[in-house]
Write a structure and sequence with these properties.
about 220 residues, Tetracycline Repressor, domain 2
């Protein structure tokens, strides 16, 4: 915490000497993640994380300046895993429609799954005290995925498989449209959309996107 009360996100401490035990690193982050998601940020102590991880408090503090830094590391790791490029864009030669459907399906899993809802509740509870946490989630998960999607749209436009003038805007509109009712229902704790209905929604979103951004059949035509 800075002197003016604003939270700062410290990176893990870097120590000289023997290499760090990566097994302990993983155990700490796994234990902390489970506890934060189950009990919320405020209810979890570093002692509880140490006990669950099977390490000492000193081991944790050798890596993280405080509980805020530990939570930030958990959040960053979860986000980076969730938006792994291979999870959303697995093959360059995959048909565009299949990629759009895969992207939408996994994006909905990302924003409406049980872990996502748990994370959302923790972030909402912490926003007033530590707004940087929500910013970190937005930058590491949401913005990263949007940027990768936009770059894929630019590549596919260059390859002649799509015609997208504003890749960033198109990416936001597609992701926003896909979220739709499914995300609202998850946010309010309502039963999810039936799988067949959700599948139809995703396919319709992909087809609408393709109609809006079909490749120009006449490449030499002025646009």
């Amino acid at each position: 915490m800075s002197s003016d009360g604003a939270m700062t996100l410290a990176e893990p401490a870097i120590r000289r000497g023997r290499p760090r035990d990566t097994a302990k690193d993983e155990a700490i982050l796994l234990a902390a993640g489970d506890l934060f998601m189950e009990h919320g940020y405020e209810a979890v102590s570093v002692d509880a994380v140490a006990q669950k991880a099977g390490v000492s408090k000193a081991t944790i503090y050798a890596r993280y300046a405080d509980k805020d830094a530990l939570f930030a590391a958990v959040l960053r790791q979860e986000c980076e895993r969730a938006v792994s490029p291979d999870s959303f864009f697995p093959a360059e030669d995959q048909p565009v429609r299949e990629t759009l459907i895969l992207l939408a399906t996994r994006f909905l899993d990302l924003v409406t799954g049980e872990k996502a809802m748990q994370m959302n509740r923790v972030l909402v509870a912490e926003t007033a005290r530590a707004p940087r946490m929500a910013e970190l989630f937005y930058e590491t998960a949401v913005l990263t995925l949007k940027n990768r999607f936009a770059e894929w749209l630019r590549v596919e436009t260059a390859r002649g498989r799509l015609h997208v003038r504003d890749a960033d805007g198109a990416a936001w509109r597609y992701l926003g449209g896909v979220k739709g009712e499914a995300h609202l229902r998850a946010s309010f704790g309502l039963p999810p959309i039936p799988p067949a209905q959700l599948k139809a929604h995703i396919e319709a979103a992909a087809d609408e996107f393709l109609r809006a951004h079909a490749a120009d059949p006449a490449p030499n035509k002025a646009v």
